[in-house]
From TrEMBL:
One Pfam family in the UniProt entry: Aminotran_1_2
InterPro entries per record: Aminotransferase_I/II_large (IPR004839), AspAT/PAT-like (IPR050596), PyrdxlP-dep_Trfase (IPR015424), PyrdxlP-dep_Trfase_major (IPR015421), PyrdxlP-dep_Trfase_small (IPR015422)
Sorted UniProt keywords: Aminotransferase, Pyridoxal phosphate, Transferase
Cofactor annotation: pyridoxal 5'-phosphate
Cleaved signal peptide residues: none
Stored Gene3D superfamilies: Aspartate Aminotransferase, domain 1, Type I PLP-dependent aspartate aminotransferase-like (Major domain)
Keyword Amino-acid biosynthesis set for record: no
Name by which UniProt lists this protein: Pyridoxal phosphate-dependent aminotransferase
């Protein structure tokens, strides 16, 4: 439905266009408001559709890109688009010129304009040259990436390198403990599939998976598809929205069918991360279960370990990997998607704490992906070399996230002064690419979008209350107009 007022066209005054876009926001939200909470469509899709409708209507009315950028800001999706980075803190082309990341990471094409910075193409060509070197290395090691891999878990050279990195955290693993996957989501799916298969071989049901809320909900959909019972545990704000040892012990005691705990070590959506002590307390609970003959696996999602302070990540990971007596119950899922801004590349892997268990899980890889793409493995190896040889790039990505998180908090605080939207704007643990905030009574994600132009995701998306909202710093820069 188009607005009835006349369009100012591309030459119209910026403020006039912004006012008309605000009116469009209000009218579209009135049409969509009743759809949230009906269950007919996931909340995240409702919000995404609203943003798409707004952007399409603005394009049809020939509004200027500047007016649209200021009045419609999609903060629903976490992915970082390096082609849209505009931030340059300090000297152009200097170490804090974040526009250069697309060129440095080989994503930008040679000569591509990155918001005023012209990509040299050095990173683009470097990756392709290193892929050639990687293929020669694999052939020399007896692995041909161009033929079918009957094991399906990926080449042993890269798996060995990833295991070596994880040993720096104190995890005793080798290439035999590691399996590659097409991103963390694919890895989690394969693990849940494999555990259900092993249960079936014992003529047992898959059991239940414990999910702490609020939390990333994709694994819930995966678990349900393999016949698991979904067991949600609501966490408390005073606990930092984290699963505590006593809470875990209570739910395991009351629900003997729970055999998997899904744990996001650095949380999406809340941005809070587990401390070494909190992780040790949960391991004590697992230890107690094992002593009573009950095996409970922890599916540790490390997708955001690496977005925060390195010393904090090392401390929490050493705590998580130090208990050798429960190592066989630990499953570690890692990815370069969020930590290295490579969401489209789909580089992920799993490390199992036990060699025999890793071997038993192999059928899940063979029976799903079959054989991992050879070209994908070569690019994965090239990127691994890039970051190993240029550790400064990883720190630059962390600085980039830190800048956007800080600016987003400032923007939310300013909007709160103008519109009294939030009961609490939570500080993060200097990690992830999100903000998690509690809304005032009477506010929801629709009213926030109507008043500010920021499209966030309601808390119900993550198994929590719509009194909360999550914003992402990923796709778009934070513009302080």
């Amino acid at each position: 439905m188009m607005l009835q007022s006349s369009s100012p066209g591309a030459g119209g005054a910026l403020e006039e266009q912004r006012l008309l876009i605000r009116r469009a926001r209000k009218e579209i939200l009135q049409r969509h408001r009743g759809r949230l909470g009906t269950g007919a469509e996931p909340p995240i899709r409702v919000m995404a559709r609203i943003v798409q409708d707004l952007e399409r209507e603005c394009a049809e009315r020939d509004f200027t890109p500047e007016a649209i950028r200021l009045e419609i800001v999609n903060r629903t999706i976490g992915d970082v688009n390096l082609r849209l980075v505009t931030e340059c803190e300090g000297e152009e082309g200097g170490p804090a010129d974040f526009r250069m990341l697309g060129d440095e990471l080989g994503i930008a094409l040679p000569g591509e304009d990155l918001n005023g910075f012209t990509a040299s193409g050095d990173g683009y060509h470097w990756l392709r040259a290193r892929m050639l070197d990687a293929e020669r290395e694999l052939l020399a090691a007896g692995y041909d990436p161009r033929i079918y891999d009957i094991h399906g878990v990926g080449n042993p050279v890269l798996r060995g390198r990833l295991a070596e990195e994880m040993r720096q955290w104190g995890l005793s693993v080798s290439a035999q403990h590691v399996a590659l996957g097409l991103g963390a989501t694919d890895c989690i799916d394969k693990v849940l599939r494999g555990l259900a298969h092993l249960a079936g071989l014992r003529s047992q049901p898959p059991g239940a998976v414990l999910f702490a809320a609020p939390g990333f909900n994709m694994p819930e959909l995966q678990a349900a598809s393999y016949g698991y019972r979904l067991h949600s545990v609501r966490t408390r704000a005073e606990d930092g929205f984290k699963l505590t040892g006593p809470l875990l012990a209570q739910h395991l005691e009351e629900n003997p069918d729970i055999n998997v705990v899904y744990l996001t070590v650095t949380n999406n959506p809340t941005t809070f991360a587990y401390s070494p002590g909190e992780l040790a307390a949960m391991q004590d609970v697992l230890r107690g279960c094992a002593q009573r003959g009950r095996r409970v696996h922890v599916l540790a999602d490390l997708a955001y370990v690496g977005t925060g302070r390195p010393e904090d990540d090392r401390a929490r990971m050493r705590s998580l990997t130090s208990a050798e007596d429960v190592a066989g119950q630990m499953i570690y899922v890692s990815s370069l998607s969020k930590t290295h801004t490579l969401t489209g590349e789909r580089f992920g892997w799993v490390a199992f704490g036990d060699t025999e268990f890793a071997r038993n899980m192999g059928s899940s890889w063979t029976n799903s992906v079959g054989s991992l793409p050879g070209e994908w493995q070569l690019r994965f190896m090239a990127y691994h070399d890039l970051f190993r040889e240029n550790p400064r790039l990883i720190e630059k990505i962390r600085e980039f996230y830190r800048l956007r998180r800080s600016r987003l908090r400032q923007q939310l605080e300013r909007f709160d002064k103008e519109h009294q939207l939030f009961e609490h704007i939570y500080l993060d643990d200097d990690a992830t690419i999100y903000n998690w905030s509690r809304l005032r009574a009477g506010e929801d994600c629709f009213s926030v979008l109507e008043k500010t132009g920021l499209a966030g995701i309601p808390g119900s998306t993550f198994g929590y209350s719509d009194d909360y909202i999550r914003f992402s710093v990923g796709i778009l820069p934070v513009v302080m107009d």
